[in-house]
Amino acid sequence: MFRRAAVEHLLQNLLLPLLIFSKLSESSSEHECKCVLFNVTSGNFQSPEFPAPLEGVPCLFYHFQAPPDHIIRLTFDVFQLPPRIGVCSSSIMLYDHSIDGLIEFGERADFEFCGKEISSGRQFFSKEQHFLLQITSAKEASRGFRGSFLAIPKKNFTSDAVEMAECSYRVEKQKAIIYSPQYPYYYPSKVNCTYHIPQRKGFQIVINSIVMDIGRDAILQIFESVEGKFEKRLIEMVTSVQKSIYVSSTSSLLIYFSAGNNDVERAVGFVIELQYSNAVWSQSPEAASDCQLNVNSENFKEGQLSSDKIGRYTSSSLPTKCQIVLQGYPNEKISVKFTHFNLYVPDNKNVTKRCTEVDNLSADVRVGSRLSRIDEWCGKRTPPNLMSSSNLLQLEYNTKSSKAIRESTNDDIGFRLEYKFHTDWNMGNMKAKVDKRKECRFSFNSSEHTNGKLWSANYPGLYPRNVYCEYIFHGRNDQVVHIHFEYFDIEGFNQCDETTQSDYILFSNYQTHDRTNRRFCGKTAPKGPILSESNYFRMIFSTNDIFDATGFYAHYQFITQEKSQISRVKLTISSSQTPFSVIFFVILFSLFFVIF
Ligand SMILES: *[C@@H]1O[C@H](CO)[C@@H](O)[C@H](O)[C@H]1NC(C)=O
Ligand SMILES: *[C@@H]1O[C@H](CO)[C@@H](O)[C@H](O)[C@H]1NC(C)=O
Ligand SMILES: *[C@@H]1O[C@H](CO)[C@@H](O)[C@H](O)[C@H]1NC(C)=O
Ligand SMILES: *[C@@H]1O[C@H](CO)[C@@H](O)[C@H](O)[C@H]1NC(C)=O
Ligand SMILES: *[C@@H]1O[C@H](CO)[C@@H](O)[C@H](O)[C@H]1NC(C)=O
Ligand SMILES: *[C@@H]1O[C@H](CO)[C@@H](O)[C@H](O)[C@H]1NC(C)=O
After folding, report:
1. Does 39 sit in the ligand 1 pocket, CB within 6 Å?
2. Nearest CA to 239 among 256, 220, 266?
């Protein structure tokens, strides 16, 4: 309420300062401009004194300022200034690209309008947070203008696709909208963008334009291709005259957008809606591979791959970059296990340190909407088991050696792997109850097992990125639980907090979030067993989107409290110097003898 009131206040009072201003301006410098700031997220604007005629305003700015990561939209409702006779006598000038709300003295405006040049309903968007509107009006009377403004989050115009590289996207959703770069602002000149929409068995892809204004110098092409095949067929070529498209296909589609020069024409580009809709599937041809092998989980949830299968038809002896893209349904995760790994290393190279200049294999997983590199491997350094926490895992096989060399050695050069798509964390052996409502929550109930093992997802391989897993222990009323780590490798250091971008383990005696407890990370396991205060205990394992390690392996045991006497040891005590914890360990060790 207050915000809106503030704008109206500004507008109502506009009249007064203006009168003062026009008097002042007669005697003062011509370049002195008054500026009205509109720093709320929505409202109306109008020419001073509207609907009274606009006249005698030598220079006035309206500065629309949106919150960070928002842009401004201006919508005109009325616009009527004296007509343009060669030049505009009175006009408004729009500056839509200012990054800081300032413009240079004498800077050319992005638009200048007078007469009835802005039709009712016409919209303008700023590139960034700021939009400046300058009013210059001579003595000649006119009606003036009126409109509304709105701050819109930039993310409203972010394509529903994963950015694989600079302006190269892969669509993963059942239904998605893709926007040309910088939309709704005009697209930058000379960019090339690619949008890959992979085929899905039983579905056809339907593409429909919502906005199509690609400009004279730009080309938008749509190709059809079969996953795993190199050839592609042009099915649609859009030029500036075409204002809409509709395409459907059961094959994969590739949309190429090549921008050309757009600095003068300022075309906005496109908004395309695409959707997978049910279709009768025509038998997919055998996926013969070239240098990109796409594996999805439509038909098989697991399988094997070998480096022999990729690049089979690339006879070239030049370096190649072949990709294996494993993509599951949105709720699936992917695990990869290497069963053979021996990449070619020339005799004169030493790969103990780095993989540059030799054949290598890298792995990336999708984290959010970006690909995140896990690591690179070469020589005989076999990658650990890999698991994604999302539905996309990509391997890239870079070869510098020629195919002939690789095939002529007797060393079984290349790699073989097994992959698996799964919706759970693949931790059935842990015998924990999995909470289906939570992304990653395991519960251990002492009525079912009084002791057992627990470990991190994918142990002993690298744990996945960006996971938040809870291990919950429910004992009987008189029980506590202790957890003893046999293996511990959590990427992080110092206090394991956000400033060090560490992954961590944290224990809590409460169901609610408690920040006071100590975090554990690094390669040294917590000393001695960790004990709960009561029959409820919660262990949190949280990982971020950079760097990984191999996780943990621990065993737990529920013990009845009479035996233990130690239920009061608080986890917040982190200093091992206190006599209290010495006592604690002594009791604990005697306890071990009682139990085992
Ligand atoms: C708008 O600007 C005024 C004056 O500069 C300032 O006092 C106010 O806090 C600003 N409001 C917002 C929402 O930024
Ligand atoms: C921006 O997106 C939000 C959430 O999807 C929606 O509610 C809002 O109407 C959108 N704003 C505009 C101006 O499109
Ligand atoms: C975009 O593609 C065109 C034509 O294929 C090419 O000439 C141009 O160099 C490319 N631009 C960029 C920035 O890659
Ligand atoms: C490779 O480098 C390591 C360490 O620099 C060294 O110990 C090893 O002997 C080298 N091997 C060869 C084959 O040069
Ligand atoms: C992997 O090999 C390619 C091609 O030889 C090379 O460009 C790249 O730098 C290598 N990667 C690493 C991490 O060394
Ligand atoms: C633990 O298991 C017992 C027996 O199956 C059950 O009665 C109890 O509700 C469970 N406790 C929790 C917290 O799930």
Report:
1. yes
2. 220
Q: How is domain 34-153 classified at the architecture level of CATH? A: Sandwich (2.60)
Q: Which atom of ligand 3 is nearest to the CA of 259?
A: 1
Per-residue pLDDT of the chain (596 residues; tens, 9 = 90+): 222 323 333 443 343 333 333 333 333 344 578 899 999 999 999 998 888 888 778 889 999 999 999 999 999 999 999 999 999 989 999 999 999 988 887 788 999 999 999 999 999 999 999 999 999 887 777 889 999 999 999 999 999 999 988 999 999 888 899 999 999 999 999 999 999 999 888 788 888 888 889 999 999 999 998 877 778 889 889 888 877 787 878 889 999 999 999 999 999 999 998 988 764 333 333 333 357 777 888 778 999 999 887 765 555 556 677 888 888 877 889 999 999 999 999 888 777 778 888 999 999 998 876 778 899 999 999 999 999 998 889 999 988 888 888 888 888 999 999 999 999 999 999 999 998 888 899 999 999 999 999 999 999 999 999 999 999 999 999 999 999 999 999 999 988 988 899 999 999 998 877 667 889 999 989 988 999 999 999 999 999 988 899 999 999 999 997 655 554 444 443 333 333 333 333 334 434 433 43
Find out whether 293 and 314 touch, Cβ atoms under 8 Å.
no
Q: Which atom of ligand 3 is nearest to the CA of 191?
A: 13
May I ask the CATH class of domain 428-565?
Answer: mainly beta
Mutation to probe ligand 4, out of 345, 347, 348, 350 (largest number of atoms < 8 A from CB) = 350
**Cα angle 362-390-300, degrees, rounded to a multiple of 5:** 85
Q: Do domains 292-422 and 428-565 have the same CATH topology?
A: yes
In sequence order, what are the beta bridge partners of 223?
234, 254
- Give this prediction's pTM: 0.56
CATH topology of domain 292-422: Jelly Rolls (2.60.120)
What are the residue ranges spanned by the domains of the chain? 34-153, 158-278, 292-422, 428-565
Q: What is the 3-state secondary structure (H, E, C) of 388-427?
A: CCCCEEEEEEEECCCHHHHHHCCCCCEEEEEEEEECCCCC
Q: Whole-angstrom Cα distance, residue 138 to residue 343?
A: 77
Q: Which of 318, 355, 358, 397 to probe ligand 5 with, by most ligand atoms within 8 A of CB?
A: 355
Domain 158-278 belongs to what architecture?
A: Sandwich (2.60)
